[in-house]
């Protein structure tokens, strides 16, 4: 469907979304009929219940994916591409409805949710284009004895686990390349935001994805259910996005049957502002890097290291912008910052700010949870944050910017690298040579140089150190779902 014929965006009635498990192309209840409640973090009101899968249900999904695997692997790449492209257009056609749904179950501001839907849909378009470009190679062995023929084949049945912070994009970033590479899959979304995943299952079915190629299983017992899947020899791939803590546990489990793993884990991004930076541009970038998704992004700037010569100016300008943000129900069009996803997240952020203040930090704006229903915390700027404050070492995952001054480039790099995480780092300077030099020294999989955003389906997204293994997006993301097969031959 050419872009000009995209249908007007339609609303999605949350009540009309199927609430069951999607296994083998059929919606069904969980064995035993248990359910999990879902609620709106802006109002704490119920959004209904979804099925709570058992181990038996999880293994039924593996069986469905396994039965569909051979046919899907030999489906022509062009056909797989056409289905993904149709899913892209269907997502755009339903963009407003999906955005509202994301905002309702996650809490994020509608503008952020709309941005997510577009970003998420782009993974289907990108991998529709990549599906027909799984290119191998042929070379002569250096000794001249034979040819080396390399062909890429689908890795096999894939378990995809996603977090709640980008319920659409984290799913399409895995489903897109899995399907393009010829793999069938089981998606296990987060229990906080399952409705978006269930709506996506309907979109994929409408786009023509055959029965069993994409299955969706929701469960309140991810440990046992995923554990059983990983021990099942039909499962060959685990692609996980979530916290480093859960990622570590899953890597240990996957090691039992040597399942191929891709891991997109936590971050603790430094945002470095040099004295020669364009301060207004740095504040614009900081607003995106910190406040997109209300701070609940793995790429969120967590620690701001600002040169002492521009520290006060940057802090004052950032505090003015953060303090002016309207905090309200995510679905209101005027909302700039919605609530946190749940009470535990709110309490974690409160604890981080209280700890930093106890250790001497100054609050320039925010600093106190809002006295209202829902899990609201105001955009907060802290200066003079002591080095031993917990929020400099752990992911804040909320709308709090912690500022620390530095004197030299070496000091800034050392502080930025002083973490077990290495997902993304932000650098602001007008000196390109310095920018590139510092980018090379920073221990991160991605660098934003004079930018507040790195995410792009056409770019390899991923971290070093304990922020992950492998890359999503770009051609790299396709290869995560493929195995290189080497054939030694002569002719
Ligand atoms: P989480 O690790 O708690 O949960 C992620 C997913 O894993 C959920 O679906 C959850 O149900 C499931 N899960 C939890 N315990 C499990 C277990 N024992 N076995 C199998 N599955 C299990 O993370 P979260 O709170 O949903 O998401 C926030 C985290 O995700 C942050 O750390 C954030 O940085 C990270 N994240 C990373 C990226 C990235 O691309 N690197 C992107 C988004 C989020």
Key features?
491 residues; alpha/beta; Aldehyde Dehydrogenase, Chain A, domain 1; Aldehyde Dehydrogenase, Chain A, domain 2; 2 domains; seven-stranded mixed sheet; six-stranded mixed sheet; 14 helices; 20% strand; globular; disordered N terminus; binds nicotinamide-adenine-dinucleotide
Q: Would you spell out the secondary-structure blueprint of this structure?
A:
Layout: E1 21-23, E2 26-28, E3 35-39, E4 46-51, H1 55-74, H2 77-93, H3 95-106, H4 110-131, E5 137-140, E6 147-154, E7 157-161, H5 169-181, E8 185-188, H6 194-207, E9 214-216, H7 222-231, E10 235-241, H8 244-255, E11 260-264, E12 269-273, H9 279-291, E13 301-307, H10 311-323, H11 343-358, E14 362-365, E15 380-383, E16 400-406, H12 409-417, E17 424-428, H13 432-441, E18 446-449, E19 468-469, H14 474-479, E20 482-489
Parallel strand pairs: 7-8, 7-10, 8-9, 10-11, 12-13, 12-17, 13-16, 15-16, 17-18
Antiparallel strand pairs: 1-2, 3-4, 5-6, 6-20, 11-19, 14-15
Helix pairs in contact: 1-7, 2-4, 2-5, 2-6, 3-4, 3-6, 4-5, 9-10
The structure holds nicotinamide-adenine-dinucleotide (NAD).
């Amino acid at each position: 469907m050419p872009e000009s014929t995209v249908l007007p965006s339609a609303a999605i009635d949350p009540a009309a979304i199927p609430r069951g498990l999607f296994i083998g192309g059929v919606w069904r209840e969980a064995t035993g009929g248990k359910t999990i409640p879902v609620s709106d973090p802006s109002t704490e009101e119920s959004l209904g219940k979804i099925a709570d899968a058992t181990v038996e249900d999880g293994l039924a999904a593996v069986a469905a994916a396994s039965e569909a695997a051979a046919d899907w692997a030999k489906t022509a790449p062009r056909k797989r591409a056409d289905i993904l492209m149709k899913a892209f257009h269907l997502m755009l056609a339903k963009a407003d409805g999906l955005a509202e749904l994301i905002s309702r179950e996650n809490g994020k501001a509608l503008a952020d949710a709309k941005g997510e839907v577009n970003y998420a849909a782009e993974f289907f378009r990108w991998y529709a284009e990549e599906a027909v470009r799984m290119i191998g190679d042929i070379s002569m062995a250096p000794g001249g004895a034979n040819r080396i023929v390399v062909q890429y084949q689908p890795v096999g049945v894939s378990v995809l686990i996603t977090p709640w912070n980008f319920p659409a994009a984290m799913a399409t970033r895995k489903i897109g390349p899995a399907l393009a590479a010829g793999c069938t899959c089981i998606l296990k979304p987060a229990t906080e935001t399952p409705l978006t995943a269930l709506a996506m299952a309907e979109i994929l079915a409408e786009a023509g994805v055959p029965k069993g190629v994409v299955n969706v299983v929701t469960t309140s017992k991810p440990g046992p259910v995923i554990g059983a899947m990983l021990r099942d020899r039909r499962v060959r791939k685990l692609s996980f996005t979530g916290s480093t803590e859960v990622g570590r546990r899953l890597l240990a489990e996957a090691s039992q049957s040597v399942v191929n793993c891709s891991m997109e884990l936590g971050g603790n991004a430094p945002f470095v502002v040099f004295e020669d930076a364009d301060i207004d541009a740095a504040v614009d970038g900081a607003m995106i890097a910190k406040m997109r998704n209300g701070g609940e992004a793995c790429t969120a700037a967590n620690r701001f290291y600002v040169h002492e010569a521009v520290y006060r100016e940057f802090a004052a300008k950032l505090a003015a912008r953060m303090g002016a943000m309207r905090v309200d129900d995510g679905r209101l069009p005027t909302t700039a910052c919605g609530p946190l996803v749940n009470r535990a997240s709110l309490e974690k952020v409160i604890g981080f700010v209280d700890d930093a203040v106890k250790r001497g930090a100054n609050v320039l704006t925010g600093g106190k949870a809002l006295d209202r229903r829902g899990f609201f915390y105001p955009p907060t700027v802290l200066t003079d944050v002591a080095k031993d404050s917990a929020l400099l070492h752990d992911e804040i995952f909320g709308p709090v910017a912690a500022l620390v001054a530095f004197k030299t480039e070496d000091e800034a790099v050392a502080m930025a690298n002083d973490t077990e995480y290495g997902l993304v780092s932000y650098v602001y300077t007008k000196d390109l040579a310095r920018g590139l030099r510092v980018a090379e020294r920073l221990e991160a999989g991605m660098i934003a140089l004079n930018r507040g955003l790195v995410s792009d389906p056409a770019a390899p997204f991923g971290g070093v150190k304990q922020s992950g293994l492998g890359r999503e997006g770009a051609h790299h993301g396709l290869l995560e779902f493929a195995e290189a097969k080497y054939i030694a031959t002569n002719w």
